Amino acid sequence: MKFDNIIIGGGLSGLTCGIRLSQEGKKVAIISAGQSTLHFGSGSLDLLGYDEEGNTVEHPLDAIDHLNKNHPYRKIGADRIENLTAEAKKLLDECGIHMTGSVQKNHYRITPMGVLKPTWLTLENYATSPSATELPWRSVIIANVAGFLDFPVEFIADGLAKLGTRPEVEIISIPTLKARRHSPSEMRSANIAKILSSEETLEQIAEVLNGMEETAEAILMPAIVGLDKEETEASLKQKVRRPLLLLPTLPPSVPGIRIQTMLQKQFTHLGGLYLLGSTVTNGNVSNGKLEYVMTSTMMDEKLTADNYILATGSFLSDGLKSNYERIYEPILDLDVEASKNRAEWIDPNVFNAQPYHSFGVKTNENFQPSLKGQTLENMYAIGSVLGGHNAIHQADGTGVSMMTALAVANRLINKI
Amino acid sequence: MATDLQLTSISEKDLEQCLKCSICTVYCPVSSVTTLYPGPKHAGPDGERYRMKDRRFFDEDALKMCLNCKRCEVACPHGVQIGDIIMSARMKYSRHSAGLRDFMLANTDLMGTVATKVAPIANYMTKAAPVKSILHNVMGIEKNRTFPDYARQTFESWYRKEAAESQDKFEKQVSYFHGCYVNYNFPQLGKDLVKVMNAIGYGVKLLEKERCCGIALITNNMPSQAMRQGKTNLKSMQLSVEQGRPVISTSSTCTFTMRSEYEHILHLDNEVAKNNLSLATRFIYRLIEEGNVRLAFQKDFHMKVAYHTPCHMERMGWAVYSTNLIKMIPGVDFIMLDSQCCGIGGTYGFKKENYSISQKIGEKLFHQIQESQVDCVATDCETCKWQIEMSVSTPVMNPISILAQALDVEETRRLNKKPDKQD
Amino acid sequence: MNAGIFEKHYDVIIIGGGATGAGTARDCAMRGLSTLVVERYDFTTGATGRNHGLLHSGARYAVTDQESATECIDENMILRYIAKPYVEEHDGLFITLPEDDLAYQEKFVESCWKAGINAKVIDPKEAIQMEPSVNPTLIGAVQVPDGSIDPFRLTMANVLDAQLHGAQILTYHEVTGFIIENGRMLGVHLRDNITGAKREVRAEITINAAGIWGTLVAQMAGVNVSMFPAKGSLLIFGHRVNNMVINRCRKPANADILVPGDAITVIGTTSDRVPIESVDDMHVTPEEVEVLLSEGAKLAPALATTRILRAYAGVRPLVASDNDPSGRSISRGIVCLDHETRDGLAGFITITGGKLMTYRMMAEVATDMACLKLGVQQKCQTATTPLPGSDKSTVEEPENHLYAFNARVGRHGTLAPSIAAMDDYQNSLVCECEEVSVGEVAHAIENMHVRTLTQLRRRVRLGMGTCQGELCALRAAGILCASCKKSIEEEKADLAEFLNERWKGMYPVGWGPTLSEAQLTSVIYQDLCGITSPSMKDRRQEP
Q1: Under CATH, which number does the domain C87-148+228-316 receive?
Q2: Which subunits sit against B, judged by 3+ Cβ pairs under 8 A?
Q3: Which of A266, A393, B138, B257 is in the most buried spot, having the most CB atoms within 10 Å?
């Protein structure tokens, strides 16, 4: 099969890039080995939350110039990032993913531990604060579903109290949710959200929420509604008399899954081919160009394209692999930026910046990777497979995914 | 010092690749609708670690709830063969042999052979209320299910009488693995395939010996019979390939079973299937794409079609071939349905204990079909077809049958006839 | 809960909450002595919790140390009876590889028989059938009654039984000095390691059962017990590779025992003398990992490609007797020192040497000595009285959730029914890898001296599975909070500590799926949840 572009990896970066290219009429295929890390997401997209020393970043655009020169943002250039963020916001809107936030100034999301973290965009209907030191409410109800262990209310309540908001914890239930608890292992956010997808169950939940004492200004609830569509959230909000806001839970992430679904829908709607459950196993490089790729599912079918985009993610997505001897990129064994000495991959304190988090595929300024030192002309790497930054310590993973995806897409669009 | 230490992580069905991320649990159609099934993570890799320690950790009642759709495997980012782990555990640890009900449901060949001989009676009987009541109460076969009709004449006997002779005149040939459904219930699909293949210049032969692919034997825990039948099929495929005929099928499940389950569950050497067995839609689409075949369509053909991706088609990753082929038909107004399980799971939904789960799983799909207001649903799996036809009023067709209807056979034949080969 | 504990005058204070300390407490309490156990941290934090978990048949020592071998097989049979649910009776193989001397086998079997160990030479082909993971190139095999034992649960059962017989327990209380008057030890000075409070408690006899730390304890009392700290490193593999213990039939060396236990397999050990100052901070080095892997793969080739979950190291409390640099030839025998006759310090006993297998016998020897001094006539009954969870009662199978039921019975034996499993909440899983329910967590908090996640892990295996605490740590932390034993801040610190403790075992084997797993854990706890170590957090609070 022949395409204009083949994107390997169907997560946030792969889909962003795929949508952008499809918008320009390109014939694009995304080959995805499985579901993406959006399933562990928070419902927010971070651009840059902390600098390399761990200080909170208030104005991300201003901080970019201070990043190390290997940071993907530096390769794009601070001046272009602002435009790309606007493009990203527009793309998300067009997909029906409605988020608020500004690239000029970070706002703060509330974590499942009740901690504030700086971020760029957050889904509408999710609880945020403009300030790092206080919350917009004097008092809130934290309403958790009985038996749902992936939302530690004690920590959240404590976190909110420390920020000066009086929390009140309420445990709620309705018959269908109670029945779900018969399964010891499957009382999970996504399963609950599947139950809370009918008008009938939303009515019941709303009734419970409306029955609470009307002292608190807002109700905070775990992100257990809106798995398929935003409308479910809106419908519940509309039924509840007080402001209702959602907080992320432990995975699986309902907001993350919805972002994934919406992006995927948009991509296929634009004519893209999304192959899920198919792993790109190898490819053929000749004269500095990737000629085709092979997959785990399509037998002898060679998939060819003018340009190939690697968006396979980091270790936890198998975009990078490691063994007793080395760190490597598993499809083509592209050159990687990583220490050869295993002892240098890690830091004995789990909370220190782990060197391996910054490892990635080595690329030039245009995000083109190389194989044994030779740049691959028709290949690009985007998203978490790139190194040069520590997404966990800098809160910039989702931003890097979207920015590099758009930078590469624009390059391919403008090339002709 | 040894140099090959820890370069790869190898474990049975990639059990150890599981990062416990719980993504698979989101996509399990069964645990979404019932709490009786502990979900793919728990039933699969989590449970297997402890089953390796002690058979007592095998919870047969729970594992039996898996409908073998493999959607967990499609979702898994690390290639853990979650569904295979569960299915293999059922075979490895179960001490129950299949009962009469499961034997009947699984032995599609045997049942088909008997039933087609007395097709009108069989069809009447399986629909008759008293019989259904006995099936339901005594045997545990769901009374709300309608068995597909048995044909009066099997596909094989039609083929031998009507088609076999003319196939030899084609220079290029394929072997057709028709499967039980085409043979006993719906020979028309087989006839459609012969029509299409002949039109594009391919003769269609049968395999020397074809047995049911065995998927129902696998899911109903009859591995030794499944292995016997598998070996027969693989041997016949080998012979066909040696004679220059690749093998095609019109059933996604049969194809998947022989390409994947034979290896992963039955541990058969199925290289011949992995390299040479294809779905007819894939085979045809690739011929067209490579420029070796051209199709011509009837000018007045119009159909609004929605494609449903069967679970095993999703696992194979081949829906693209069937849909691309359908989309080539100029008169087709195409809609892609969300890829989700219809709930039947082969024989799973025929068991009375699973009926309500089965229907609940399919609900969203049925709803989407009704909303779409299409003339027909296209799908590559016969059991999906039964389930959808039993649940909504929209007819269901195999893409090959749609192609057969839309094709301008004469023109196609002309387009694909090599000038020097005219007879 | 500790009211009155410090005012009492005890017959015996036992220092150390390992298997020996707990076993001694049980023995003393069963003989009617008023008993107090003081442990500076949690139970099983020393060598007890850092070994193979091998139920030795004694065969390993048969050739080099008949006395230890005999002790082992005797205790082996006793443990099968008194600690049934904590023991897996799967037998072991001693294999001879082409590079080994097959002639050793004959001597080995003969020595086993002499020690009373039922060793049976079997055909290598039969050995492969019995244990398919074994190195197929083996040229000889001997079957012996090895097994595995869970040292955490074994110790806890001893603690529970000691308590049932009236013993008092003080964990997180460290001995900082002794009350000694006129050549007699009258009691101990204690520091509460959580609050910092200082205390003293008095007893007729103080028994030093502090393992390798016993040498430091003795030092505080002014007596010299010279020990040989021998570090042993081990690796845990992700699932059961083997179902029988596999040993090398040769003189004991590095990495020659492969033990299956619960859902994992352990290879070990190395043996290196380490300075006594370092025993509180043991790290597994890359060199040790290399040795364990390359030698281990000779026992079972699959180890070369099996995921490794963790590496850990313990320190054996060998009593120094010569200049053997490896410590391999030092007797594993029991040493019980009466400091009254040895050093002129009355009321003080040190029990050391030995090994997990002989903990009960060590306890018996020490208790015998204490009883003699106290003039108590009661005989030891610990060899014939089953431990809690090991009695003959039967546990009824429930209709559903069989898997969870078996996990509970596996961990708690006949005590399992006391774990709440009646309603949906109690049945919900906290740790999915190890099938730990809310009810079991609550049970441990209630009955097993649990106030931290790490303690919970030692009691019920929470966080010991494939993912090493990826989701369960936070779920359990929530439950610990709700149980109201501590402040949220404390629990947050506990969670951070737990994550770091898990990482400590992962990073020495941080490659392949284990490294990917660690990254996912970081994504969940640090990126998604925003958990930071206290110092990081302080920094981040300042914008």
Answers
A1: 3.30.9.10
A2: A, C
A3: B257
Q: What is the pTM of this model?
A: 0.96
Find the CATH number of the domain harbouring A227.
Answer: 3.40.50
One-letter amino acid at C283 equals: H
- Residue B127 CA, chain-centre distance (Å), reads 24
Does residue A133 fall inside a structural domain?
Answer: no
Give the model confidence (pLDDT) of B218-248 as tens digits.
999 999 999 999 999 999 999 999 999 999 9
pLDDT of B381 > 70? The answer is: yes
Q: pLDDT per residue over A7-56, tens digit each?
A: 999 999 999 999 999 999 999 999 999 999 999 999 999 999 999 999 99
Contacts of A190 in chain B (CB under 8 A): 25-26
Kindly tell me the burial class for residue C93, based on how many C-beta atoms sit within 10 Å of its own C-beta (0-12, 13-18, 19 or more).
Answer: buried
- Superfamily per CATH, domain B12-93: Alpha-helical ferredoxin (1.10.1060.10)
What's the whole-number mean pLDDT along residues B239-268?
Answer: 98
Residue of C23, C145, C36, C163 lying closest to C83 (CA atoms): C23
Determine which of A149, A326, A389, A394 to mutate to test the interface with C (most C C-beta atoms within 10 Å): A149
Six token digits for residue C457: 């892990």
Of A242, A276, A299, the residue that ends a domain is: A242
C520 touches chain B (CB under 8 A): yes
* Residue of A12, A36, A183 for testing the chain B interface, max B β-carbons within 10 Å: A183
Cβ of C120: how many Cβ atoms within 10 Å?
Answer: 12
Closest to C530 (Cβ–Cβ): which among A115, A322, A350? A115
Q: Among residues 4-43 of chain B, which lie with CB inside 8 Å of chain C?
A: 4-11, 15-22, 38, 41-42
Angstroms from B375 CA to nearest CA on chain A? 22
pLDDT tens per residue, range C332-358: 689 999 999 999 999 999 999 999 999
Q: Are A266 and A381 members of one domain? A: yes
Q: Which of C150, C299, C432, C461 to mutate to test the interface with B (most CBs of B within 10 A)?
A: C432
Taking contacts as CB-CB distances below 8 angstroms, the residues of chain C near A351 are: 496, 499-500, 526, 532-533, 536
Are the beta carbons of B23 and A278 separated by less than 8 Å? Answer: no
For residue C515, the chain A residues in CB contact (below 8 A) are: 315, 322, 345, 356
Chain A residue numbers with beta carbons less than 8 Å from the beta carbon of C517 are 316
* B41–A323 C-beta distance less than 8 A: no
pLDDT over 80 (residue A74): yes
Answer for the pair A312, A318: CB distance below 8 angstroms, yes or no.
yes
Query: Residue C137: is its pLDDT beyond 60?
Result: yes
Contacts of A39 in chain B (CB under 8 A): 21, 23, 26
* Displacement of CA A65 from its chain's centroid (Å): 24
User: What are the tokens at B285?
Assistant: 């689409």
Smallest CA-to-CA distance from A227 within A200, A252, A247, A207 is with A252
- CA–CA gap between residue C271 and residue C280 (Å, rounded): 17
Q: Are residues A266 and A387 in the same domain?
A: yes
Question: In CATH, what class is B303-409?
Answer: alpha beta
Write down which residue in A219, A242, A265 finishes a domain: A242
Number of folded domains that form chain A: 2
Count how many Cα atoms sit within 13 Å of the Cα of residue C170 in the half-sphere of its side chain.
26
- Structure ipTM: 0.98
pLDDT, tens digit (0-9, with 9 covering 90-100), for A267-302: 999 999 999 999 999 999 999 999 999 999 999 999
Q: How far is CA C358 from the centre of its chain?
A: 13
Q: Where are the beta strands (DSSP E) in A65-217?
A: 99-100, 107-110, 116-119, 121-123, 128-129, 139-145, 166-172
- Token pair for C87: 């023991």
CB contact under 8 A, B75 and A40: no
Instruction: Tell me, yes or no, if the two domains B167-289 and B303-409 fold the same way.
Output: yes
